[in-house]
Design a protein that fits this description.
Layout (H helix, E strand, L loop, with lengths): L1 H22 L4 H18 L3 H16 L7 E6 L5 H14 L2 E6 L7 E3 L5 E3 L2 E2 H4 L6 E4 L3 H8 L2 H12 L3 E5 L2 H6 L15 H6 L8 E4 L2 E4 L5 H13 L1 H10 L5
Parallel strand pairs: 1-2, 1-6, 2-5, 6-7, 7-9
Antiparallel strand pairs: 3-4, 8-9
Length: 254
């Protein structure tokens, strides 16, 4: 109920601000950016710090109480995470039927993250809410500042090491294979990443393919390969037939 009220209020505030901006002659793109950025910040302010964990816990409780056939996916983000990649991952896997939880790794527990191009994302939960849960997939978006924030988040990295130890699936895209997986011994097999020399050098076994599947790990290059990456994650969870079906609906050639 709290999340529904929060989102409804955000939309109302955004619509109001957009109308006011347009009335004063502000350009459409500026009006939208200002409206939704303000709405995201205001929405997060409605959740007192001491209640944010309870909100996140409720989201996770609803997620874990779903049918056992529903796959649970964790997408951790921080300030500077890449928004195209984050959106492609969450949107595409939701189309498959997965229950996707976006978790903020910000140390102060704030749910609003300012992404790499300034767009504000409202996470569903904090990483503290997520670490004691079981996940079918943990998927890390890129963006250099965001990837560094994920790598520096000790609870997340412990969770990912546990995921790997149990031979459960995890994935990373763009800067994340080099900055999140590799420093923590999670990219020992063939992997790809954003084609920057420093990132390539950080991988033990670099591949130039757009998407690389190595056992329980999937990696990809960046924003332009995000849909292909997300569809491959869906295939790992639901099979090729379902992935081809979703790809056709999205007008994506595989």
């Amino acid at each position: 109920m709290a999340q529904q009220l929060l989102r409804a209020t955000s939309i109302l505030v955004a619509s109001t601000l957009f109308g006011q901006s347009a009335a004063f002659g502000t350009s459409t793109h500026c009006a939208r950016a200002t409206a939704f950025a303000s709405a995201a910040s205001l929405a997060n302010s409605f959740i007192p710090v001491d209640r944010r964990n309870r909100v996140g816990a409720n989201v996770l409780k609803m997620s874990s109480s779903s049918s056992e056939s529903v796959k649970r996916v964790l997408v951790p983000i921080g300030d500077g995470s890449e928004e195209i990649e984050t959106t492609c991952i969450t949107d595409t896997l939701t189309r498959f039927g997965a229950s996707v939880t976006v978790a903020s790794v910000k140390p102060d527990g704030e749910l609003v993250c300012t992404m790499s191009r300034g767009i504000k994302f409202l996470a569903d939960a904090t990483i503290a809410d997520a670490v004691n849960e079981e996940w079918d997939y943990i998927v890390c978006p890129g963006g250099v500042p965001g990837a560094k924030a994920l790598s520096a988040c000790e609870p997340l990295m412990e969770l990912m090491k546990k995921q790997n130890k149990l031979n459960k699936r995890y994935a990373a895209i763009c800067a994340a294979p080099a900055l999140v997986l590799s420093p923590h011994g999670l990219a020992d097999d063939a992997a790809t990443c954003y084609p920057a020399p420093d990132f390539i050098a950080a991988l033990k076994s670099h591949s130039d393919d757009d998407v690389v599947v190595s056992g329980n790990m999937v990696t990809s290059k960046g924003p332009g390969t995000s849909l292909k990456f997300a569809l491959q994650l869906g295939e790992e969870l639901y099979g090729k037939e379902k992935a081809d079906e979703i790809a056709e609906q999205m007008l994506v050639k595989r």
